Amino acid sequence: MKTMLFGQTPDQLKETVAKLGLPAFTATQLGDWMYKKRVSGFTDMTNLSKQAREKLDAAYELDLKAPVSVQTSVDGTKKYLYASQSDNFIEAAYIPDKERATLCVSTQVGCKMGCLFCMTGKQGFQGNLSAGEILNQVQSLPEFDNLTNIVYMGMGEPLDNVDAVLESIEIITSEKGYGWSPRRITVSTIGLIPAMNRFLDESEAHLAVSLHSPFDEERKEIMPIQSVYPITEVINELKRRNIGGQRRVSFEYIMFKGVNDSPRHANELARLLRGMKCRINLIRFHPIPDTPLEGTSDDKIEIFQNMLKAKGLTVTLRASRGQDIFAACGLLSTKELLKKQQEKDF
Ligand code: SF4
Question: Is residue 250 helix, strand or coil?
């Protein structure tokens, strides 16, 4: 089986060409062809010698995968389904919005974290994506040239696959890759502290922490990770590092009716985040199959938002996009997975 070359960082490419006995400058040429000129085969790499191309072709493949299907929302949001190398399916959402065009990428097939409100969590965990598979969602996107931002908020917990996430960010931000500013990238996490510290040490991208409840016991009910990394420890770690002073940190807060939307929650949230430069993103919840959770009504969200603002916090309400095609993040791929299982059982 050939090794995937697409997704290798500049340093990894140097090691690869050394292993093949090719001149060191071939690494720069390869990065240039793959990430700048975005070719899909070795034959297109015309400034490489025939011998170099043959050596590469014998052991490596670029293996770029076009999306297998797309759903388009009335608001222009598009949800792409990609096949992973393990023959499972992952999703990426393209969200155009005036001058901005954001791509939300997946980092794992399924997820281990079991958050109660999440369709991907219900799917279980099928595996990590490689840096190449994460990057393929970007590079094979038909709207690649329009992209202004990338958020790692699709299927999976990005920091549970921190190596591949950091490698993909390195390629996106390196001058030898796409050459993007890291400020155009946001990575979300439910708060895996050791991996979060690595991410903060090794990249300059923005961070979004999924908070969803300020109370230990209540957060545990909806996010099992709370038993391992309590949200107070996550926040204390960010305060200790003074992260909000250096780059953008936001806290994601999905509003669940009767669960986390009371004045008691707003007060505790404000107390927890006191002294930290950050932003809270309130998010409407759109119910998924088999969950007891319901979304807070818009008027109650507004009251909650105003309570937080009155306490001096920066709060935004994230616009719901692609609602008609997003019955829930992870739903499309879950359907494909079930179809595959049924075909196997048949
Ligand atoms: Fe995993 Fe994120 Fe879903 Fe939690 S919300 S189960 S971390 S994908």
Answer: strand
Q: Tell me which residues are annotated as active site.
A: 91, 329
Residue 17 has a CB neighbour count (10 Å cut-off) of 20
User: Can you tell me the distance from the alpha carbon of 273 to that of 233, in angstroms, rounded to the nearest whole number?
Assistant: 12
Sign, CA torsion 147/131/165/218: positive
Task: Give, for all 346 residues of the chain, the pLDDT tens digit.
Answer: 889 999 999 999 999 999 999 999 999 999 999 999 999 899 999 999 999 999 999 999 998 999 999 999 998 999 999 998 888 899 999 999 999 999 999 999 999 999 999 988 888 999 999 999 999 999 999 999 999 999 999 999 999 999 999 999 999 999 999 999 999 999 999 999 999 999 999 999 999 999 999 999 999 999 999 999 999 999 999 999 988 777 889 999 999 999 999 999 999 999 999 999 999 999 999 888 888 899 999 999 999 999 999 999 999 998 777 777 765 566 666 667 666 655 655 5
Please name the residue whose Cα sits nearest to atom 6 of ligand 1. Answer: 121
Residues 319 and 100: their CA atoms lie apart, in Å, by 14
Closest ligand 1 atom, residue 108 Cα:
8
Ligand 1 center to 190 CA (angstroms): 8
Domains and CATH numbers, the chain: 3-61 (1.10.150.530), 69-345 (3.20.20.70)
What is the greatest pairwise CA distance in the chain?
69
